[in-house]
Write a structure and sequence with these properties.
This protein is α/β, with parallel strands linked by helices. It has helices at 34-48, 68-85, 94-99, 139-146, 158-168, 181-197, 216-221, and strands at 2-7, 13-19, 22-28, 58-62, 89-92, 108-116, 119-126, 129-130, 135-138, 150-154, 173-176.
Length: 222
């Protein structure tokens, strides 16, 4: 497989390039400078595995929910490559990709992203199967959904959510593992490759990220 993975749904952007057995990855936790560094970082990871953009067989893109600005950056970069090279882009739901490495967990897996304003983007999984649709939820709603289940909190904001949930209800049976930036790009590669092999529809030019709420600019305009 000759592929590129882009996760810009969260503030710490993760990128990886794969050329058969060779793989290179990089993370960018640089705040507002993401817009100027994303494309050079893509060129860097491709160069490390001896790939040109025209060599790519697929692009795996984290499709949201998540940061409005970050998602738009990722989609712009991926669509630019798609238009210039014809390479198919597969938009993978971010919360599903975050949960994939933990599909063997015997309890419920709670994939989470901090949505700010005292809310979290969350989705619940069990044995690798979706138990809910993505939610823009308050802490109380997440506590009620977990209930008496043993839950593994995953994702880049798992520690934040874990601590908030414990503060809300110390009787919850919660677990978390250290977040690994490489796990999200590995999951994106795996899910996009399966979509490619099954000849699933690629991202269309008119399609955008998964948004669970309006942006602040849209709210202010309304």
């Amino acid at each position: 497989m000759k592929a590129l993975a882009i996760d810009s749904a969260v503030p710490c952007i993760s990128l990886a390039a794969c050329n058969q057995q060779k793989k290179a990855s990089v993370t960018l936790d640089i705040g507002m400078r993401q817009s100027e560094k994303l494309v050079p970082a893509i060129a860097y990871v491709l160069e490390q595995v001896d790939l040109q953009p025209t060599d790519l067989e697929l692009i795996a893109l984290s499709g949201g929910p998540g940061s409005f600005t970050g998602l738009r950056l990722g989609f712009a970069a991926a669509k630019g490559l798609q238009l210039s090279t014809g390479c198919p882009v597969y938009s993978i739901p971010t919360l599903e990709a975050q949960a994939l490495p933990y599909s063997c967990w015997p309890g419920v897996v709670v994939s989470a992203i901090d949505a700010k304003k005292d809310r979290f983007y969350v989705q619940f999984f069990s044995n690798g199967k979706k138990q809910s649709e993505p939610m823009d939820a308050e802490i109380e709603e997440i506590v009620q959904t977990i209930g008496s289940q043993e839950a593994l909190i995953v994702g880049p904001d798992s520690l934040v959510l874990h601590n908030r949930l414990k503060a809300q209800d110390n009787n919850l049976r919660l677990h978390r593992l250290p977040d690994l930036s490489s796990s999200i790009t590995d999951a994106l590669f795996s899910m996009a490759q399966k979509a490619y092999e099954r000849q699933e529809a690629q991202l269309e030019p008119y399609q955008g990220p998964i948004y669970l709420r309006k942006s602040e600019a849209e709210e202010n305009q309304r």
